[in-house]
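Risk register update: the risk that structure generation would not scale has been downgraded. Supporting records follow, first protein first.
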Amino acid sequence: MSVKKITPVLFAAEIEPCLKFWVERFGFEKTVEVPESNKLGFAIVQEGDVELMYQSYASADKDAPAAAAQAVRKGATFLYVEVENLEETIGSLKGIEVVMPVRTTFYGAREIVVKDPAGHFVTFAQMSAAPQK
């Protein structure tokens, strides 16, 4: 088996605020959108080789009811995003809920954890700090 790509699919009550989060703050581009009534049911954002998919709970319920039920019951997803410049990233997070303030880990990463508009946890990490002993 040869894996070519892995793309997370994140579920949300509303996709539009999630798109704003990635597009306006981090320069992602919306590459796909699928309308569902008067809102989006599905969308893809991409920056270089990094891609995220969002699907609304309503769309998922129509598409795959069993999966949608699991998504609602299980709750948030956790993403670990390695960035080149954490300070620049922090500057893009004004007004976003910080779940864990900046810290340096034992494995040498400087990290901050925030929630995206759908409630998913996003850790932004810069791998430049020396490991702690």
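Supporting record for the second protein:
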Amino acid sequence: MAKFKSTTLLSTLVGAALLSQPVMADPDLQKEIDALKKQNQTIMERMNATMDMMESKQPASHGHGSGKGKTTVGGYGELHYSNQANSIAGQPAKKEIDLHRFILFLGHEFSKDIRFWSEMEVEHATADPNGGEVAMEQAYLEFDLSDKLQSRAGILLVPVGFINETHEPPVFYGVERNNVEKYIIPTTWREGGVSINGKAGDFKYDLVVHSGLQISSGDNYAVRKGRKGVREAPANAPAVTARVKWNVTPGLELGAALQNQSDMGQGMDASVGAGTLTEAHAVWQVNKFTLKALYASWNITGSGAASVGADKQTGWYIEPSYKLTPKMGVFARYSTWDNRAGDNADSAYTQSDIGVNYWPHEDVVVKMDFQTQTAPAGKSAYNGINLGIGYMF
């Protein structure tokens, strides 16, 4: 790229014209000429410096550091409105609007083999004791060991189920995430650890050693309450998760995951022992029709968990959907989950959903669904409508 483009050329011609004039006896006029010559020189220096920068092949620096590499910024979010009646007479209905999630993504590629990925999340618009939070959802380094093998280290999403790793609003049906992958898996579930992730033919596999849950009697040993979010999380009993996915034929994927943790009380509650999570799922797509199904189950040892039926915690769902047009799809879902399935008491919840997704853009979605719940005796069930908008970029 030539340094003297149109602006510099104009400045040069002006300067040349000034220099070609005979020196006047008037000292004031001579001072003006000298000032214009100096200004012209400054313009030329700045233009040359700009052209030098544009010609440089080094990318611009993003904040601190060497400036080498590529930095990516993105995010996703969703706003929900709920209007649901309570099944228990005299109990308040659920009528609310909520900025459920706002997430910023930041990634950086140090080289073709080393990169960094992160997500920072704000839930419910604020961070306060009533439920809002600001948290790291992911933050890890990724290393390419070969064309088909990677390793990750940092805050990782546990590789289990559909939603835990891929949960941007435009990629799933329904305003809210399904309850099986909320209360049994429990999404969004992140831990600190290291993983191996690979491909072999039609198979993908993951092996992760990571921090584990810490459940207790105070929360009836519910697994969702055991997440610590890698905030000074106890590491007395790490967990191991293995997952495999098989693309059987085009449009059909089968997957399964197994996790084991030797002490789900992390040494703080002797009434709970080891825990094993088993998960299996399938997704089948034929033209505009898709069918998803998932099953997940915990087996937890210890007298405390068994005393309230929390030694077994299970759930499953099935979800058919159909794309009416490239921008509109309809779905139905039936799900059931039980965090105290180990006894004979009625403790299971069920929910039926039917709704529609509309994508005005492939990364923007408008959602509506109707839900009908049944709950154990004395527990609230909510029936009504949900509306939502979501995006990702």
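Residues 27-55 form the longest helix (29 residues). On this basis the risk owner (M.S.) recommends closing the item.
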